[in-house]
């Protein structure tokens, strides 16, 4: 799976993959990008001190179209909880030095590339392995190094946070590195920042436009919602159902309290007049038929007569009528005893006795 010399690769069909977790291996990278297209080879540069990869790699596809498709679907997906960055390797190589290069001085001899990478990668994307300047004969550190960030935001944060801090019991100095073939001019100028903002690598940390900043797809207007919002019944719904549900399904604004059915009095059919107000001196009309006790129906607007009472359901004969006059409910009371008149003595009546 290891790639051959860089000159033998098809750079237009090769993608750069950054932000890889330490658990990622070349076989895993092969299997992952095989979902986008046929893979020719993969390559993950290793640190010569630790033997571990440096968090980035290269994947060569069979064609340039496969590489473009992999960039579209793989950029900023999460692998082991970390979003990976995928872009063209040709753009990566041509624009490797965007100018966000920092110089780190007064390093302890025990500091290696891995420690620098682990320390400074917290501020942003590091494009390549930190370069510690070493003696060509002994391989010992000269006490300074260079780190190339992908953006000036990362390099500014690293300089502000790490300059003067202690690393392995030594205070280090962090500043922008001097430009090559220049007389005392450092990186980080306004011109470099403007060019870096237009560089493709400056967009590496951002999600792909296809998934992040794309507006939601336009949806067709819902005829039911549009009809309810305008107060008209949607197709398949009558005026009575619209009055019951109300706009947006929230119920009628003039519905009665809970338990009263929540329905307003229906409108009279066309051609039926509204009942007029009660005659002068007569009490006002009661609530419409069917309204609960204690909860009168809604008051009609000013100048509009009230709605007619609801028609009783089929078979309903009205409220129970009072019993006939004289009819008593329950068991009858026992009859009261009445005094009988005195009985006259038997026999012929005699007249008054003679004197």
UniProtKB/TrEMBL annotation:
Residues 207-355 are annotated as: Disordered. It holds the Pfam family RRM_1. Its main location: nucleus. Residues 13-91, 100-179 form the RRM domain. GO terms for molecular function: RNA binding. The keyword Transmembrane helix does not apply. It comes from the Eukaryota. GO terms for biological process: mRNA splicing, via spliceosome; positive regulation of mRNA splicing, via spliceosome. InterPro entries: Nucleotide-bd_a/b_plait_sf, RBD_domain_sf, RRM_dom, SF3B4_RRM1, SF3B4_RRM2, SF3B4_spliceosome_assoc. Keywords: mRNA processing, mRNA splicing, Nucleus, Repeat, RNA-binding, Spliceosome. It is found in: Nucleus. SUPFAM superfamilies: RNA-binding domain, RBD. Gene3D superfamilies: 3.30.70.330. Residues 263-312, 319-355 have a biased composition (Pro residues). GO terms for cellular component: nucleolus; precatalytic spliceosome; U2 snRNP. SMART domains: RRM. Component of the 17S U2 SnRNP complex of the spliceosome, a large ribonucleoprotein complex that removes introns from transcribed pre-mRNAs. The 17S U2 SnRNP complex (1) directly participates in early spliceosome assembly and (2) mediates recognition of the intron branch site during pre-mRNA splicing by promoting the selection of the pre-mRNA branch-site adenosine, the nucleophile for the first step of splicing. Component of the 17S U2 SnRNP complex, a ribonucleoprotein complex that contains small nuclear RNA (snRNA) U2 and a number of specific proteins. Part of the SF3B subcomplex of the 17S U2 SnRNP complex. SF3B associates with the splicing subcomplex SF3A and a 12S RNA unit to form the U2 small nuclear ribonucleoproteins complex (U2 snRNP). SF3B4 has been found in complex spliceosome 'B' and 'C' as well. Component of the minor (U12-type spliceosome) spliceosome. Found in a complex with PRMT9, SF3B2 and SF3B4. Belongs to the SF3B4 family. This is Splicing factor 3B subunit 4.
């Amino acid at each position: 799976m290891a790639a051959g010399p860089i000159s033998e690769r098809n750079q237009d069909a090769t993608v750069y993959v950054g932000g890889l977790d330490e658990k990622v291996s070349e076989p895993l990278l092969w299997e992952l990008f095989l979902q986008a297209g046929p893979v020719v080879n993969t390559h993950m540069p290793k640190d010569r001190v630790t033997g571990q990869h440096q968090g980035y790699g290269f994947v060569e596809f069979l064609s340039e179209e496969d590489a473009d498709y992999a960039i579209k679907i793989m950029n900023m997906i999460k692998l082991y909880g970390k979003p990976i960055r995928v872009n063209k390797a040709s753009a990566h190589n041509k624009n490797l030095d965007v100018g966000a290069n920092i110089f780190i001085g007064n390093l302890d001899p025990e500091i290696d590339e891995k420690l620098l990478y682990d320390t400074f990668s917290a501020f942003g994307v590091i494009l390549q392995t930190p370069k510690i300047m070493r003696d060509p004969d002994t391989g010992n550190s000269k006490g300074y190094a260079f780190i190339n960030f992908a953006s000036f935001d990362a390099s500014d944060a690293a300089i502000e946070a790490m300059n003067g801090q202690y690393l392995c019991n030594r205070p280090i100095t962090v500043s922008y590195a001097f430009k090559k073939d220049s007389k005392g001019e450092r990186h980080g100028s306004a011109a470099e920042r403007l060019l870096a903002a237009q560089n493709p690598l400056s967009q590496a940390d951002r999600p792909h436009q296809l998934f992040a900043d794309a507006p939601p797809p336009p949806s067709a207007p819902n005829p039911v919602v549009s009809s309810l919002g305008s107060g008209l019944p949607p197709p398949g719904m009558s005026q009575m159902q619209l009055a019951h549900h109300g706009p947006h399904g929230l119920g009628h604004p003039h519905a009665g309290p809970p338990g009263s059915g929540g329905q307003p009095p229906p409108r009279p059919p066309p051609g039926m007049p509204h009942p007029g107000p009660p005659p002068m001196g007569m009490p006002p009309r009661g609530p419409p038929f069917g309204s609960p006790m204690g909860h009168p129906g809604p008051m009609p607007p000013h100048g509009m007569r009230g709605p007619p009472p609801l028609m009783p359901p089929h078979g309903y004969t009205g409220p129970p009528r009072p019993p006939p006059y004289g009819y008593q409910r329950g068991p009858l009371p026992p009859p009261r005893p009445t005094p009988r008149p005195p009985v006259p003595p038997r026999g012929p009546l005699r007249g008054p006795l003679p004197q």
